[in-house]
Amino acid sequence: MAKQDSKSEVVTTEVPELKNRRYTVGYIRDWKTHSTSASITLKGNWLDDAGFKTGTPLKIRVMPGCLVLTAQEPFVMPTPQAEPEIMQILRKVCKLPRRKQTHITDYIEMVIAKK
């Protein structure tokens, strides 16, 4: 238990300065029907500073009078596994003339028949 005359220690952390931006909702016009749709264009170096680098996928939550944009981790394609050597050879065989393909097919059938 704390002593009666002790004071609790106050810890403060710095909070980054919030920066407000002011924009106006504009419109874009459909080139076929000439109907208008609401449009908001965000641009500037402050987007990079806020973690929205070019190509960053966004998650957008839509609520009445409020949009929340959240940067997402970019999707990374899994590295393809190495193709087996036999498949690489067969791809080369497919590019050969039909007559040579037939010779190779006959040879493979002969090897299989001997097993």
Structural features:
two-stranded antiparallel ribbon; two-stranded antiparallel sheet; 28% helix
Fold and architecture overview:
By secondary structure, the protein is α+β, with helices and mostly antiparallel strands. Among the domains are: 26-71, no CATH class; 85-114, no CATH class. It is 28% helix and 17% strand. The chain has three helices and four strands. The protein has helices spanning 45-49, 85-94, 98-114, and strands at residues 26-29, 36-39, 58-63, 66-71. It is elongated, with a radius of gyration of 32 Å. It starts with 25 loop residues before the first strand and ends with a helix.
Concise synopsis of the structure shown:
The protein is of the alpha+beta class and 115 residues long. The protein has helices at 45-49, 85-94, 98-114, and strands at residues 26-29, 36-39, 58-63, 66-71.
Largest sheet: 2 strands, antiparallel
- The strand order across the widest sheet is 1-2
Give the uncertain stretches in residue-range form.
none
* Beta-strand proportion: 15-25%
* Helix count from the secondary structure assignment: 3
SS content category: alpha+beta
How far apart are the first and last residues' alpha carbons, in Å? Answer: 84 Å
Radius of gyration: 32 Å
Q: State the order of secondary-structure elements, H for helix, E for strand.
A: EEHEEHH
Number of strands: 4
Average pLDDT over all residues: 82
Label the overall shape: elongated
Helix content: 25-40%
Topology:
Elements: E1 26-29, E2 36-39, H1 45-49, E3 58-63, E4 66-71, H2 85-94, H3 98-114
Antiparallel strand pairs: 1-2, 3-4
